[in-house]
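**User:** Once you have settled down, spend some time on the protein underneath, comparing sequence with structure tokens, and judge whether sequence predicts the tokens.
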Amino acid sequence: MYEELRQVWGQLTAEGGPFEIEQVTVRGVPVKSFKNAAPTLRDFWLQSAAQGDKDHLVYGDERWTFADAHREVASAAAWLSSQGIGSGDRVAIAMRNYPEWMLAYWATVSIGATAVGMNAWWTGPEMVYGLQDAAPRVLIADAQRLEILAPQRSEVGDFITVSVRAEGAGPSDAVDWSELKAAPSEMPEVEVDPDSDACIFYTSGTTGRPKGAQLTHRGCTNNIMGVAFGGLAFASASRLAQGTQQETPPSPPRSLSALVVTPLFHVTANNCVAHAATLAGGKLVLMYKWEPGEALKLIEREQITNLSGVPVMARELIAHPDFSKYDTSSLAALGGGGAPLQPDLVEKIDKQVATARPSTGYGMTETCGIITSNAADFFVDKPASAGPAMPNFEAKCVDDSGKDLAPGEVGELWVRSAQIIAGYLNRPEATAESITEGWLHTGDVARIDEDGFIFIVDRAKDMVLRGGENVYCAEVETVVFEHDDVAECAVFGVPDDRLGEEVAAAVVLKSGSATTAEDLRAHCGARLAKYKIPRYIWLLEESLPRNANGKFLKRQLRDELDLAEAT
């Protein structure tokens, strides 16, 4: 089977093949790149106009064809351009998974401006921080985000506010999205640098504040090719191993219907699902929030072929009491990323969903999407593996000193590719710490087996992976320590059956304090998004254990503290 994968891999990436690999120089470093990737996201989007009257965006009873979407994107781009927005400018997008998120995104990148994806779960102070850091010239936001920002609007600089689905509830100086739609539907003619910033997505910071990762056009279009390659290579190799196809791999499928179940301000939904579906001329069915019963209805109604979310979503879908009552025969791929799919879930998907094959991908915001992919028979055979690195990546494991390790040895995973971000916005030191001569330090401890499949075995970074969301412990600790009654605090992750991990905090209060765990949660709730607030809090009387350097021993706390005794 693995020989067939190598055969297909070689055919697809060979000179003249659809996924031919070339070496390019990016920021002074030679890296691998897909030769046939679109130069920029503008080029990629304009190519999709050929899909015409095919359905592209679906939200509730609303529907956009590709032609509809192109008209609206061109109008929004023309309006932004008329406001002087162009190359080097930033447009922040703050809303839930509405169709306007995608339309605003394509309009922004098509004129060479940078889309700033703001986390829709951020609190007011978090929104202020993001807006101060990114300094956008335009904010496109829904009613709820505008309401959250309103009390602190004076703390951020001047920018044009565009309201979406606000029904007159936005600030008095806000421009309604309908005005952008009414602009002439003429896409401005601009030149876009492939290595310029296409978008900025915020990833929680190890030092207490989220960092704005600068995703480039080249990085994003390479990821589109990587996603397409992974799907085609594993399916082709599986069929070849079973003797059910000729040796020449088939052309990529041209019809796809994806259910978008994770937030568009992350690379999972935007870069890996929405971009890939657009390449395939596919339909994106947007969910406001995840609900497995509603997902089943949409799968049947919209003939969904692909559902890629965090593992708990696939688990809840197939375990839903009404699963058998709905027609799910259109499903071809079920799985996702954001967290490892547990081996038992891989088996359940393969056995319980007759038409769907399990699939996963491992990636990061810092790689504009996926690094690896694993699917079909290969995922069933190696359910604990994230799969091999895509052909436009170099991957290696290194020891604590950065020395290369032999295959099979465990160390931190480093990767290099055209997909690596340009850096972190306004954070040259953090960029230098994370990227060495083009090699991204992933912060994940891994091993690479004899077939090139990568197994993630631990995490080097002090982080909790909660339902696909990265929660950096230092950020939560910073907020907890802002409470006047806190003397010591250590935040760490604990296992959770549904979300993979939950946020926990061991806290020592100052002598005489009457502060409760609920007081601390309320304190955090005013400053942090809900998913970052510790679910489990221990209020301890004795000082927290430390090592010789004075650092709290979080692994010891995790092992010794009883969840039943947490508040």
User: Anything to note?
Assistant: The first helix runs from residue 2 to 13.
